Amino acid sequence: MGIVIAVISGKGGVGKTTATANIGLGIAFNDKKCVVVDFDIGQRNLDMVLGLENRVVYDIVQVMEGEANIKQALIKSKVNENLHFLAASQTKDKSVLESSKVEKLVAELKESFDFVILDAPAGIESGYEHTIEFADAAIIIVNPEVSSIRDADRAIGILDSKSAKVKAGEDVAKYLIINRIVADMVESGEMLKSDDILEILNIKLLGKVPEDKGVIDASNQGKPVILDKKSIAGQAYKRITGRLCGEKVDMKDIEISDKGLFKKLTGIFR
């Protein structure tokens, strides 16, 4: 039986869908069977980031309504055969989601995959609640900004109140990814430090991802940035997925700029 992980954020624009795509592909490269599921009904984007938009025939709503089975709807990645994708519907809205149907879908996917990654809609609406309801764990994506942290804290609160695991007396594992870190801005105080974010949210840090201009180009081309060996964000996602797959990977400090590192080194030698 696989593990179901919901990828969530309190607000849009923090890089949640991009993170989902790269995490899914990174897991596949670690020789684990993984499926990424787009739960953002009505606003499908994950297919484009994965470069699979032209392959979508059936979507998640059609599967839950019995119009297609999972095998018909699953799309295999062009990059790695361990990764599969299940698309959101573009013609329906989030009101079509029902707990019993979501639970059945998730249970069926768990039987075939080591990891089931659910890309939740941004915010705290009904679609979000259905995405988190049957998850075993959650990855919270934040930017090092006060508004992002505040909204993430609200999303975590709803996760604890709506989770079937929590209602059954169990804990939902929670992991944090701090995305789009700019070292110079952290040093100048324009962005929050990771230690401060962890103190506020009080969940385990899974990884830090630096700001990388190549992420937008990669997403537009349908090639997750983890495929770019020169990308600093891609390298960060490789470290993150290694940790998810049980490897011991050191947490690289990306909050010190080259200028700050030089000052630190000259201070040591003095």
The strand order across the widest sheet is 3-4-2-5-1-6-7-8
> What count of domains describes the coordinates?
1
Gap between N and C termini: 56 Å
The appropriate CATH architecture is: 3-Layer(aba) Sandwich
Order of helices and strands: EHEHHHEEHEHEHHEHHEHHH
Flag low-confidence runs: none
In percent, how much strand structure appears in the residues? 15-25%
Q: What is the number of helical segments per DSSP (H or I, 4+ residues)?
A: 13
Level of helix content? 40-55%
For this structure, the CATH topology is Rossmann fold
**Class by alpha and beta content:** alpha/beta
User: Radius of gyration, Cα only, in angstroms?
Assistant: 19 Å
Largest sheet: 8 strands, mixed
Count of β-strands:
8
Average pLDDT across residues? 92
Quick recap of the structure?
This protein is of the alpha/beta class. The protein has helices spanning 16-29, 46-49, 60-64, 70-73, 99-112, 126-133, 146-162, 164-167, 183-188, 194-201, 214-220, 232-244, 258-269, and strands at residues 3-8, 34-38, 75-76, 83-86, 115-119, 137-142, 173-181, 204-210.
Textual characterization of the structure:
It is a single chain. The chain is an alpha/beta fold and 270 residues long. Helix 1 (16-29) crosses helix 12. The protein has helices at residues 16-29, 46-49, 60-64, 70-73, 99-112, 126-133, 146-162, 164-167, 183-188, 194-201, 214-220, 232-244, 258-269, and strands at residues 3-8, 34-38, 75-76, 83-86, 115-119, 137-142, 173-181, 204-210. The chain has a single domain (3-269), classed as Rossmann fold (3-Layer(aba) Sandwich), CATH 3.40.50. The mean pLDDT is 92. The chain contains 13 helices and 8 strands. The chain is globular and about 55 Å long. An 8-stranded mixed β-sheet has the order 3-4-2-5-1-6-7-8, with helices on both faces. Strand 3 (75-76) and strand 4 (83-86) form a beta hairpin.
